[in-house]
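Structural prep section.
Before we set up the soaks we want a predicted structure of the protein with 4'-deoxy-4'-aminopyridoxal-5'-phosphate in place, mainly to decide which crystallisation condition to try first. Input record follows.
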Amino acid sequence: RTVYVNGQYLPEAEASLSIFDRAVLFADAVYEVAAVIDGALVDYPAHQQRLARSLKELGIPLPVDPDALLDIHHELLRKNALTEGLIYLQVSRGCADRNFLMPHKATPSLVLFTQAMPLLDTVAATNGLRVISRPDMRWGRRDIKTTQLLFASMMKTEAVAAGVDDVWLHEQGMVTEASSSNAHIINDAGVLVTRPLSNEILHGITRAAVLDYAAESGMQVEQRTFSLEEAKTAREAFITSATAFVTPVVEIDGVAIGTGRPGPATQRLRELYILRSRSTHGG
Ligand code: PMP
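Run finished without errors. Recording the C-alpha cells verbatim:
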C-alpha cells in the first residue's frame, strides 16, 4: 500500500511520524474517514467542512490548501487502485517538546492512507448488529473529531468480548452514540428519532445525509434525545457512519428490536443512501 505523509507518497513500511508529534503524545490531532465506492469519494465536501471546523476548534492550521488536499485524495486512490473501502486523513499539530502548553509555531503533520474493504455487501447490513449499552464516559467535546478514541475503543472491545457487535453509549439513560457511529430509532408511528446536534455527539456526515434523504422521501424526522428504554421498544433501530452507511441494529441489551430482524424502513434508507451516494459523487 502507498500512503501519504507530509508531502510524500511512500510504501507504508517506509512512512513514519515523529515520536514528538503531538498526535502521539496528546492525541492533539483530528481526522476524517470518507467512504470510497466505485473508486469515487462519497460526500467529500461535507467531510472537508467538518475537518475545517475541527481544526478551527483546536487552532491547528490546514497544512495544504483545499484544492491540493483533494488532489492528494485522488492521487492516493489512483496509486492504490482503490475501488471500495475508506480513505483516512489525519492532521496533527506537529512536533514540539512535551509540554501541555500548545506550541505557537508547530508545523502540522498530514497523513493519509487507504484501506480496501467491502462496504456495500456486509454481514452487518444483512443480519443487523447486536449491541449492549454502557455509560458514555468520553470527554465533553465529542463534536471535535479528534484521535482521542480510547474509551470508544475500550467499549467496542468489551462488546465483542461479551459476544455482541458494538455498544450504544448513554448519559443518564439517554442514548448518545455508538462507539463509532450515530444512533437512531424509528418508532411505531414510523418517525425517525435521532439526538440533536450538540457537543455530546459527533456531527455525523452520514447522519446529516440520511436525515435529508428520509425527509425528502416523506418520512417524519424528530431531532430530540431518546432513552435506552424508548430504543428497546422501538420498531426499528440503526446506526450511521461513513463506512457503515445505514446499518440495522436488531438487539439492545438482549432485547430484540421490532421483529429482531433488520426493519424495512432501515433497509429502504440504506438503499436510498447508497443510491444517492453513487449518483452524487463527483469528488
Ligand atoms: N459518532 C462517532 C463517535 C464516530 O466515530 C463516527 C464515525 N467516525 C460517527 C459518529 C459517524 O460519523 P460519519 O457519518 O461522519 O462517519
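Observations: Residues 33, 177, 180-182, 202, 204-207, 240-242 surround 4'-deoxy-4'-aminopyridoxal-5'-phosphate (CB under 6 Å).
Flagged for discussion at group meeting.
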